[in-house]
Amino acid sequence: MKQRQEKRGMAYQIIVFIFISLILVFAAFIGITRILFSHIMMDNAKETVSHLANETIYQIENRLTKVLDISRTILILYHNNHFERKKLDALLHDLVYEFETLEAVTIAYAPSSYQKGYSRTIFHSQNKAIYRELQPADYQYLDWFQIPFELESKYWTEPWYDANATKETVISYCIPLFAEGKCIGIMRLDTELSALQKIVSPLKLKHSGYAFLVSSIGTIITHPADSLTFNESIFSLAEATNDKQLRQIGKKMINGDIDFVHLQNNAVFGDSWLYYAPLITNNWSLGIVIAHEDIVGDLNLLLIIQTLFSVIIFLTISLIVYYRTLSISRPIRLFMEVANKIGQGDFDAKLPSTGNSYEIDRLILAFETMQESLKEYIQNLEITIEEKNRIEAEVKIASEIQRKLIPENTLHPYGIQELRCYGILEPAGDIGGDLYDFFPVDKSHFLFVIADVTGKGIVASMTMTMVSTYLRTVSTYHYTTGEIMQNLNNFLCKQTSASNFVTALLGILNLKNGKLEFSNAGHTPLIIRNIDNDYKIISETHSSPLGVFANMVIGSAAITLEKGDEIILFTDGITETMNPAEDFLELKGLENIITELNSTNPEQTAVQILQKVHSFAQNTPQKDDITILVIDYKK
Questions:
Q1: Residue 283 has what DSSP assignment?
Q2: Fold: same for 200-292 and 407-633
Q3: Residue 409 in 3-state DSSP?
Q4: Per-residue pLDDT tens digits for 450-493
Q5: Environment class of 506 (CB within 10 Å of its CB; exposed 0-12, middle 13-18, buried 19+)
Q6: What ranges make up the beta strands (E) of 355-461?
Q7: Could you give the CA distance from residue 67 to residue 171 in angstroms, rounded to a whole number?
Q8: CATH code reported for the domain at 81-195
Q9: Cβ atoms 105, 89 nearer than 8 A
Q10: CA 197, 203, 209, 213: dihedral to nearest 10 degrees?
C-alpha cells in the first residue's frame, strides 16, 4: 500500500511539474507570438492601406491635375484671343468636347468690367458642348466667383450644384482674369464630383474596410453611409460625440498630415484604424477605415488553434508520463546500459521500465523537450521559407512598378514632332537605383532627367520613385533647372538619409529655339553629338549630389542645339563597366564608342552604345545599373 501511494505521489509530482512548466512555456510562447505577430500584422496593414491610399490619391490627383493643365492652356488662349469672342468660344467649345474630365468652362466678368454682357459658360451635355450666356445676377454673389475675385488668387471650390448649366454636383477650379493689373472676372473649370466619388466608393478592405473623402474644411464628400455625405463634417461628428481625438484628427487631415491611428470604441468609426493622407492639388484628404477585428482576426484564430494544440500536447504528454511512471520496474543497471547506448548515438534505444527514479524522469523530460525543440525549429524554418518567398515576390512586384515609372519609348514622345527620345535601363539586380524620365513642361519646353542613387535594392528603388513623382509635381511650379534641382535636393534631405544621396542631370529644352538649360548635380558628363558625328563633352557640374546638404544653391548652364543634334545621357554603370581583366571602360572608352557610331536616330544610338558596352564586358557580371537616354533635336 505504501509503495502504491509512493508511485501515485511521483506521478502526481511529475504531472504537476510538467503542467506548470508547459503552462509557463505556452503562456510565454503565446504572449510573444501575439506581440510579434501583432506588430507584423499592423505593419502589413499600414503598408497595404498606404499603398491603396496612394494609388487612389494618384487617380484623383491625375484627374485634378488634368484640370490644372487644361486651365493653363485656356488661360494662354484667353490672353491670345481676348478680344476675339467667336474664336475664343470655338476653342473653349473644342476643349469641353474633347476632355471628359472637363464638365464645363465659364468666363464670368465683374459687373463693372467693360466686358459686361460677354459672360458665358460652355458645358458638356449628352455628348455635346452647349453654349449659354450668363448675367452678373446669376453668379456675382456665389462663392466660386466672390472668393477668388476678392482674394485675386486661384481657388478650388467646395462641391456645389450647378443649377444653371450642367445640373450636376461639381467642384470648380477658379482663376482670376486680369486686365491692366485689375481683376476683371473669373474663369471657372468644372469637373464632376461623381467621378471622384466613383474612384473612392468601390474601395473595400477585408470585411468592413472602406474609404471616404474630406474637403478642405472637413466636409464629408463621400462615405458608405449616405446620411453623412454632405450632411456632416468630421468636426460636426466630433462635436456630436464629444470626441477630442476625432476633432484633432480632423485638424490634421485638413492641414495635410499623414498618419495611421487607432480609434478605440469610436462612436462614429467603432474600434478601428484610420489611415489618412492629403490630396495636394485641392487640399482635400482621403481617409481609409479598417476594423481592428479585421486586422487582428487572423491572429486571434491563430492563438486559439495554438492554445488548443498546446492543451492536446499537454494532455497527451501527461497521460504518457503518468502510465510510464506506473510501469517502471526495471533496475537502474539496465537503465544505465540503455543510457550508454543513447550516449553512443543509438537514439532509437528503448528506455527500460524503472521505479521512482528522478534521473530517468529528468532524462525523459529532456528527451521530450528535445522533440519539442525540433518541432519548433521545423515550424520556424517553414515560417522563414514562407517569409523569404514573400519578400522575393514583393521584390518582383517592386521591379515591375519601377519599370512602369520609366516613360514608354515612342517615335515622338507625347506627340512632340521636334524631337525623338529613346531610353534603356538595365538594373544590375531585380530592382535598381537608376532612373530616367522625360515629359513636356508646357507647349514650348521639354524636361528630361537622368539620375543614379547610391546602392541598389528596395531602398534605392523607393528613392527613385520619390524622385520621379516629385519631379513631375515640382516642375509644374518651377521653370528653371536650378530651382527644380534645389527643391528636389531639399525634399530628399527631409525624406532620405545622407547615405542614399542621388546624382542627377536635369535639362529643359526650348523646342522653339533649341536653347538647352541644364543642371548637373555630381552626375556623369553630358555629351552632344551632331549630324557629322562630331561630339562635345560637357563635364561642368553645378553642385554636389542631392540629398546630402539642405538649402544648397544649385546653378545651371545653357547651350543652343542645332538641327539634328543628339543629347546623350548615361549613368556611371557605363563608364564603370569592367572586362574579365578588371579594366574599366571609363569615359575614354565611351568616347571611342561614340566615334564609331553610324546611327541616324536615338534608338540606334542607344542600342549601339549598349551593344558595344556589353561587348567590352565579355559576359563579366554586371555590378551596377546601366542607363542610357538619347534625345534627338529635330527643330
A1: -
A2: no
A3: coil
A4: 999 886 667 777 788 888 888 888 887 767 899 999 999 999 88
A5: buried
A6: 419-426, 434-440, 445-453
A7: 11
A8: 3.30.450.20
A9: no
A10: -30
